Amino acid sequence: MNDRSDDGFGALLPEVRVQPPADASRAMVERLRAVESRNITYVDDGWPVFWQEARGANVRDVDGNVYVDLSSAFGVALLGHNNPAVVSAVREQSGTLMHGMGDVHPSGPKLELLERLCALAPWGQARAVLATTGSEAVEVALKTAQVATGRPGLLAFTGGYHGLTLGALAVTEREHFRAPFTGRLYGGVAFAAFPDLALDGEGAADMALTEVRVALENGPPNGDAIGAVIVEPVQGRAGARIAPDGFMASLSQIASESGVLVIADEVLTGLGRCGAMFASQLVGLEPDIVCVGKALGGGVPISACLARREVMDAWPESRGEAIHTSTFLGHPLACAAALAFLNILESEHIADRARALGARLLEVLRGELASAQGVIDVRGLGALIGIELVGEGQAVRVAEAALREGLILLPAGDRGQVIELTPPATLSDLQAEHACRVLVRLIQEVAQG
Ligand SMILES: Cc1ncc(COP(=O)(O)O)c(C=O)c1O
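Structure tokens for the assembled complex are given below, as produced in the milestone run.
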């Protein structure tokens, strides 16, 4: 093992030695372009860098530059990258049982993880299905809702992002992702507007709730009856969009009165990211089904769909062939990683740290950007923060400039207008202060053109 845990890597400030992407990254990008579908990796003069190693909030690229990762690599590294306890759980598990037979001959780590997840679930009694990606957990949720209600139709929200597999894509509302595949997408989805205070002012929640009622009454384009509504407690990829107070509680109530199940897509927001085990608790959403993923495996791919016991029990007993399963369901290595993640989540009070970090970042950014040119809004819940800028693609420009300064962050929003921050909850005070200082300067520079 290359143990360099005393060199400070993980808690370092950025160290950009050669302007990224530098020679080694560029050479590898060239090789990549020869073998990977050109749709996958975005390449331009300033993007991307190849990663070599990561720990805590730091990433080192193949040219030796050190970055502070304010994205947690898509929200995954909530504990920081390569958390030592997760690494050692993976190492230990890989020495005994790497792969099992998920739905046939189960393994101990799978059982233990299911017990832990069901104990965390927001209901007295829960049951769960393990999966590998967030999209797959969403697929399980959509199927579960149909099995439980007998109604395949769905209600979803504008700006919602639930993944890109075909079932999940049908409830994802972004033309860019949907347009090439419209003919393959399920036509039983009605969309209601996600309330937007900036756009619709005080009446935003009421307008959106009216749309919800109308959509539930009229049903989706193909005429199917609606069995479930799927919603992110805070919209992530749309740019950390937070509904006005009371909206999620009213949505839950309307759904319950209409006999429609509520699916909370907590793939990004769940497991501590927003300052609580589930963001639903914070925004008043009362789900019947919850999807988690991203942070769950501490960097190893694993996800889960949890549901109230009576909802999940609508699935028939397996008579030898599960109707829904997959090769890597309950993968022992991923389950061991997830168990280590959950231990740290609780023992190191990660949700509280995410809440405190988010509050500090919001306070500084709001203070510094209050009167900044080109900034519309600075918002967030826990360690999920959005800085909305005026003008299409402005957040993309900031992300590229930030990379040159050793900060990794991602643009979000349907027009690349929101800088999204999902840092590790373990980001140090020094890293946070430095990141804010640089970010504020870059936002001002980009706004001035
Ligand atoms: C809220 C939400 N749901 C689902 C997904 C899809 O997860 P995955 O990319 O792991 O399939 C994402 C991914 O960003 C997400 O943010």
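The first helix runs from residue 23 to 35. The longest strand covers residues 375-381. Further analysis is deferred to the final report.
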